[in-house]
Amino acid sequence: RKEVEQDPGPFNVPEGATVAFNCTYSNSASQSFFWYRQDCRKEPKLLMSVYSSGNEDGRFTAQLNRASQYISLLIRDSKLSDSATYLCVVRGMYSGGGADGLTFGKGTHLIIQP
Amino acid sequence: DGGITQSPKYLFRKEGQNVTLSCEQNLNHDAMYWYRQDPGQGLRLIYYSQIVNDFQKGDIAEGYSVSREKKESFPLTVTSAQKNPTAFYLCASSRLQEPLHFGNGTRLTVT
Questions:
Q1: Which residue in A6, A100, A104, A109 has the most chain B C-beta atoms within 10 A of its own C-beta, making it the best mutation to test that interface?
Q2: What is the average pLDDT across B30-50?
Q3: B45/A102 CB distance under 8 A
Q4: In this structure, which long-range contacts are made by residues A95-103, counting pairs with CB atoms below 8 Å and at least 24 apart in sequence?
Q5: What is the C-alpha to C-alpha distance for residues B76 and B52, in angstroms, rounded to an integer?
Q6: Ranges of chain A whose pLDDT falls below 70
Q7: Cα of A114 to nearest chain B Cα, Å
């Protein structure tokens, strides 16, 4: 099983719709979780951290399900500008033995259509 | 403005030449990282550094070298030993255990 797994998509969604996608992780000791957004040929940018109780930032909601080992991202009232690749990032315990503890998913490609 | 700066944005080199990519941050972050991204692929860790004068190999360190002589700077050298150096290189920094902040990347093409 891959450490951090995402459906690559692409997800084609009409403007204004609600879209959600998940990211599963294999290390049950993972401690912190993040969603990043990456536009084509640009650097990833932090979208939001994911907290145990779930958190919301405007149209974006992130949730963590530790029992099933996945995090989710929900986007409401999607805009054309939401088209991007969304990367899931999981941080485990820093081992100090050569691993920085960070694992990136390969990303989910989202296309919002007019 | 605080941030992380990579230069140059585009770099072209002939095969067999070493090339150094610059990464500077003024965020006072302890940790700095180098990733490589290939088309349609995820980020792969090359090297990272938690403190000055110390760095660790990542998953794909072969053919690369780094130095961390100053907290602000973490240059990456792509040596001629790297078999497939053409890629998008991303530098990042963070406070320990906090999210990463990325530079805008260097696109290296080796012919």
A1: A100
A2: 92
A3: yes
A4: A98/B56, A98/B57, A100/B31, A100/B33, A100/B45, A100/B48, A100/B50, A100/B56, A100/B58, A102/B33, A102/B45, A102/B100, A103/A3, A103/A4, A103/A25, A103/A27
A5: 15
A6: 1-2, 93-100
A7: 25
pLDDT at A21: 92
Average pLDDT over residues B90-111: 93
Q: Give the closest-approach CA distance of A98 to chain B in angstroms.
A: 6
Task: Give residue A97's pLDDT.
Answer: 39
Beta-strand runs (E) in B8-103: 10-13, 19-25, 31-37, 43-51, 54-57, 64-66, 76-78, 87-94, 101-102
